[in-house]
Amino acid sequence: MRHFDLAPLYRATVGFDQIADMMDRVLASDVAQPSYPPYNIEKTADDAYRISIAVAGFADEDLSVEVKDHALVVSAKKSDEGEGRSYLHRGIATRAFERRFTLADHVRVEGATHENGMLHIDLRREIPEALKPRRIAIARPQRTQAIEKDVVDSKSVN
After folding, report:
1. pTM of the model
2. pLDDT per residue over 13-63, tens digit each?
3. Number of Cβ within a 10 Å radius of residue 57
């Protein structure tokens, strides 16, 4: 894999360390990303998203969803309840996993639901009022005061 030097980016920008760090992390990972468990990311509205993860075989208490350091971390560990069972074929994978999703600024996790073997995590992007575009009114200059002053001065001279 090619190695990109991001040093010029660090020198020429101020306040973009998170972007540079994220690019550095992505480009530096030589290990292929794990494909278990499979997941979907869908856009449900203009500022709303849903991550759906296939977690067949896991109960609610086996799953963990948490947000830390601008990342959504979903993990699962199956409790040892089937030790006495003897399987002829075991095709449903219930191995432990940890899945990380990097969250953009102002993205908040609204909640998570677990139904029919799917874990749904709802996200919403909330842009603060200070960052939203706003229209600036253009004021007209106050010319009436200057005209009135000239009128008063001309009367006082007569």
Report:
1. 0.63
2. 555 566 666 666 666 655 556 778 889 999 998 889 999 999 988 888 999
3. 15
Q: What is the largest CA-CA distance in the chain?
A: 116
Rounded CA-CA distance 151/102 in Å is 68
- Contact assessment for residue 52 and residue 40, using Cβ atoms and an 8 Å cutoff: yes
- Coil, helix or strand at residue 117: coil
As a whole number of angstroms, the distance between CA 74 and CA 34 comes to: 14
Helix, strand counts (H, E) of the chain: 3, 7
DSSP 60: G
The CA distance from 77 to 55, in Å, is 11
Token readout for 127 is 């842009």
Cβ 64 vs Cβ 76: under 8 Å: yes
At residue 109, what are phi and psi to the nearest 5 degrees?
Answer: -85, 120
Cα angle, residue 24 at apex, residues 22 and 27 outer, rounded to 5°: 105
| pLDDT tens column, 64-88 | 999 988 889 999 988 766 667 787 8
